[in-house]
Amino acid sequence: MERFTRPVVEALRGLGVQAEASGRNDILVEGRKVSGTAQRIVRGRILHHGTLLFDADPGMVAGALNADPAKFQSKSAKSVRSRIGNIRDFLPEDLEIGAFWEYLKKALAGGGMVTGGLTAEELSAVEELRRTKYDTWEWNYGRSPQYDLINKRRFEGGGLEVRLQVKAGRITGIVFYGDFLAVAPLDGLMAALEGCEFRREAVAEVLGVVSIFTYGMKKGLERLAAAGVRNVSLTNFDAIAQVAAQQSYIRPEDVARLLAFRDNPSDESWMKGGK
Prior knowledge:
The protein folds into two domains: 2-111, Bira Bifunctional Protein, Domain 2 (BirA Bifunctional Protein, domain 2), CATH 3.30.930.10; 147-235, CO dehydrogenase flavoprotein, C-terminal domain (Enolase-like, domain 1, 2-Layer Sandwich), CATH 3.30.390. Helix content is 36%, strand content 23%. The protein is built from ten helices and ten strands. Strands 1-2-3-4 form a four-stranded antiparallel β-sheet, with helices on one face. It has a four-stranded antiparallel β-sheet with strand order 5-6-7-8, with helices on one face. β3 (32-42) and β4 form a beta hairpin. The radius of gyration is 28 Å and the shape is elongated. The model has no long low-confidence stretch (mean pLDDT 82).
């Protein structure tokens, strides 16, 4: 790592910034982290990349670094959290980002920079490689390390918590928790999702439309059926009405009236059954 961080440290010092390498892959200025790097070695080749915080929004960066640790637990290498800083705040003389970038290119090139452009044929080859390899789900997510994900959300019909295990970009385990009134066991839903690619399109293809609550109105169901979309709901209007009657929130005879409204909201005859 030092082979790659040292030139950056020297370039920053050339601007009067008291930069220093820290640990395996960080660059600090006055105790604040302004750069982090990472690399991977595959078949004798090194892919190395790094960041430089020049004039970042502190609130945005803090929000990105302060994610709920219980929500995402990765089996990959962990980053060391540090206090961060902006390079611009440490410059003896202010620079715009464009001027800083031009200086950095010259400093890192050491007088050996060669400028040029790609031919039309080369650009076409690059686009083909992007389309067939680097822009595919398999490349960007299919090789991801194993991780666990927990997500919670409250809907009108109740709260839902989903716990996922993902390996190589596929769901290997899933469990649902919540205080909603399920109308059917969730075993079939969980079984359908196991092995599915963890991406919106793949999950939608397996499940169709999934909701925590549905009124089950005839016109809506007909439209979904006509579009060939499967509709999976964890609870529905029928179940809510029945439980409301059992808990004495409504009278038992009101259940039929409510279901009549659900089946045909434009027919107001359901209101004639009394209050």
